[in-house]
Automatic annotation (TrEMBL):
Native organism taxonomy: Bacteria, Bacillati, Actinomycetota, Actinomycetes, Micrococcales
Bias (Basic and acidic residues) ranges: 1-12
Superkingdom of the source species: Bacteria
Disordered, as annotated region: 1-31, 79-100
Pfam families noted in UniProt: PBP
Alphabetized UniProt keyword annotations: Protein kinase inhibitor
Claim: Protein biosynthesis is one of the keywords in the record: no
Family, similarity comment: Belongs to the UPF0098 family.
Protein name: YbhB/YbcL family Raf kinase inhibitor-like protein
PANTHER family according to UniProt: PEBP (PHOSPHATIDYLETHANOLAMINE-BINDING PROTEIN) FAMILY PROTEIN, UNCHARACTERIZED PROTEIN YBCL-RELATED
Gene Ontology MF terms in the entry: protein kinase inhibitor activity
InterPro entries membership: PEBP, PEBP-like_sf, YbhB_YbcL/LppC-like
Length: 149
């Protein structure tokens, strides 16, 4: 199966695409939740999922900083309070801001939005979601921010 890309887009006013994320979003700098918006949600989508992942973390599968399921399948700002937060790699649900090891260089934080044809049950980890629900992905889009300490 080919990539699931068409009209879906995710954006944020908190940082420029591929640009540095502000300190206030980091775990040590306030842990503020980033604000994302989406456009181009497919008409046949039943819900959205949001995942923020750092593939540069010195861990076998990287580090997942945020997972939210059950978001409304509509264009506009993403309100994570209406969704279901799943555990991050740290083991707790909710936003876990960037906190790369000091001196480890610049890490990339991929904020993925997935438009889904079927609802996600429960609060699976990122890996379990992609394994179990990957076939329900109608479209996906990402915006990347960077952070270093």
């Amino acid at each position: 199966m080919g990539p699931h890309v068409a009209d879906l887009r995710i954006s944020t006013d908190d940082y420029e695409p591929d640009g540095p994320m502000p300190e206030r979003l980091s775990k040590d700098g306030g842990n503020e939740v980033p604000a994302f918006s989406v456009t181009g949600v497919p008409e046949d989508a039943v819900e959205l999922a949001l995942v923020v992942h750092d593939p540069d973390a010195p861990m076998v599968r990287g580090f997942t900083h945020w997972v939210v399921y059950g978001l409304p399948a509509q264009d506009g700002p993403i309100d994570p309070s209406v969704g279901r937060a799943a555990p991050t790699t740290a083991g707790e649900p909710g936003w876990y801001g960037p906190q790369p090891p000091a001196g480890h260089g610049t890490h990339r934080y991929y904020a993925w939005v997935y438009a889904l044809s079927a609802p996600v049950s429960g609060e699976p980890t990122r890996e379990a979601f992609l394994d179990r629900d990957g076939g329900s992905i109608l479209e996906q889009a990402r915006v990347v921010g960077t952070f270093s300490r």
